Amino acid sequence: MKLFHLAFMLPWIAYSFSAIADPAPLQPQIQGDVTFVSGGIGGDERDALQAVRADYNLSLLFSMQGTGEYFSDVAVRINDAKNQTVLDTVSDGPMLFAKLKPGRYRISAAHEGQEIRKTVTVDNKHRSPLSFTWPGD
Fold this sequence. Notes:
Elements: H1 2-21, E1 29-31, E2 34-39, H2 43-52, E3 58-64, E4 75-80, E5 85-90, E6 95-99, E7 103-111, E8 114-122, E9 128-134
Parallel strand pairs: 3-9
Antiparallel strand pairs: 1-2, 2-6, 3-6, 4-5, 4-7, 7-8
């Protein structure tokens, strides 16, 4: 009887450990015409983002000047040349990659009430990297 219980319980125990040890991979999200992914907290997430980086034509990085500390929970809004919002989200980590239609965009990133705005032109042939760096304390 004990052997039966052990044989029945081992698969459940193994499944429980694999569910805890193997977090869900980063999932791309879609908002309107924009596909994006964000994250980068921990080595596994950074590696997963780097693996898909080439699929996106815009990459954003959020950090603090001087210390290089990275930020998550950054409010990001991307407006097109007609001032229409094409993406309005909060980043899950210090990196956000987006796939945008070719064109000129205004990007605002806000962290703890401080907003930084930048303009970028994206195309389908090159990746446009932008860093948003907030002043240190």
